[in-house]
Amino acid sequence: MSQADRQSNNVDITQGKSASASVFESAEKHFDDAAKVLKLTMNQIATVKKPRRSVIVNLPVRMDDGTIHVFEGFRVLHNKARGPGKGGIRFHPDVSLDEVQTLAFWMTFKCAVVGIPMGGAKGGVICDPGKMSDRELENLTRRYVAELFEVLGPDVDIPAPDVGTNARVMGWIMDTYSMQVHRHTPSVVTGKAIELEGSAGRDGATGRGLLYCVRRWAGYPAKQLHGLTVAVQGFGNVGSWSARLLSEDGCRIMGLSDISGAYVSKDSGIDIGAAQEYAKKHKSLDGFERSGNVTKLKHPKEILEMEVDVLVPAALENQITHQNAGKVKARLVAEGANGPTTYDADRLLAERGITVIPDILCNAGGVSVSYLETVQNRMGYYWNEERVNYDLEEIMNRAFDTVRDTATKYEITMRKAAYVVGIQRVVTSSEFRGLYA
Ligand code: GLU
Known about the structure:
Elements: H1 3-9, H2 23-38, H3 42-48, E1 53-62, E2 68-79, E3 85-86, E4 89-92, H4 97-113, E5 120-126, H5 134-147, E6 157-158, H6 167-181, H7 205-218, E7 229-233, H8 237-248, E8 252-258, E9 261-265, H9 272-282, H10 288-291, E10 294-296, E11 310-313, E12 332-334, H11 343-351, E13 355-357, H12 359-362, H13 365-379, H14 385-410, H15 414-433
Parallel strand pairs: 3-6, 4-5, 7-8, 7-11, 11-12, 12-13
Antiparallel strand pairs: 1-2, 2-5, 8-9, 9-10
Helix pairs in contact: 2-15, 3-15, 4-15, 5-6, 7-8, 7-13, 7-14, 13-14, 14-15
The site of glutamic acid has 11 residues, from helix 13.
């Protein structure tokens, strides 16, 4: 971010972590590649590349032992040309301003790729939710919303779940905001519980969107997914739903991993229902090798090198790097996580003929159903899951075909094509709006 941007945003970002080894720089490289394909002018680049607003808040929270702990939190609005900011809130010890800015940048182009009327935003708090009580988490969430009240709202910026947050946290956000404005305002946040005007199908939406992408890649319905082998890195919301839905479609899940390690099937595939039950009971897959027909790999990251048809990285950023991209054996990498592949690794995979369905397309099912949730909130009328899944499938298939056709037209990878589609749409909307002065 330049000095001019800092001043024009009128917010203090100086407390942010050093931008050395910035993930944002890597995301910018993808942007620049696509901008070249589109032959964008400097003016067009200037209007869509940088985040519009980055806010840092220090959040004093009373802990269960009576002490007050001050947490650092962020909310970044990257772009609002196509609609209000949209993006999750991450609770994780490694959160940084640089990461949140990058995640917000991806949200802008993700929303544009799937054609929903939303801009890009993201939030985060440096904390370890696994080590906090429910009350501490509630206090932190409410304080976060109270401090950021002016920059949130159904027509301003709409949060959602991300790593470390869930429907429970979204409920606290909805309640805090509603109390502040003295109005029942469900559309201020998505990913809420069904009982709190959430949408049917939102919980599994990211995994379901990924399933629709993999089906499209495989040529479904003529070609079924039956028998395809899969390895899934990460067993949170995205990983577990992806594994479950792919296995219901006939795939064999040969490997699974989470923070505790990687577990590989000894025979024809892992029973995902059993893995989900185990993870629910034990809070992770730790020890799963003793209960299922699986062995544990020495290093969790070996999951990425498994001999399978489809690899689903569904954990955090920067997992497939220049060091291990040469060892990936899958034919397809379906990115469930945001930014799991570094810029250099992405080039290596392309050189090796491995198809990558990029994050801003492949994991866009979550935000797509978030959009459907806001539509239902605004109507006050709720659809059943069948209806939501039908719309999601339409959205994903249309986006997949547009990206694939763009890749064919320009003879580029699906990653570059997704950026081309997303950036083009944001630039076009910006130009129709003109520049407010
Ligand atoms: N956190 C999800 C993502 O990265 C969902 C965002 C949303 O629903 O707004 O796409």
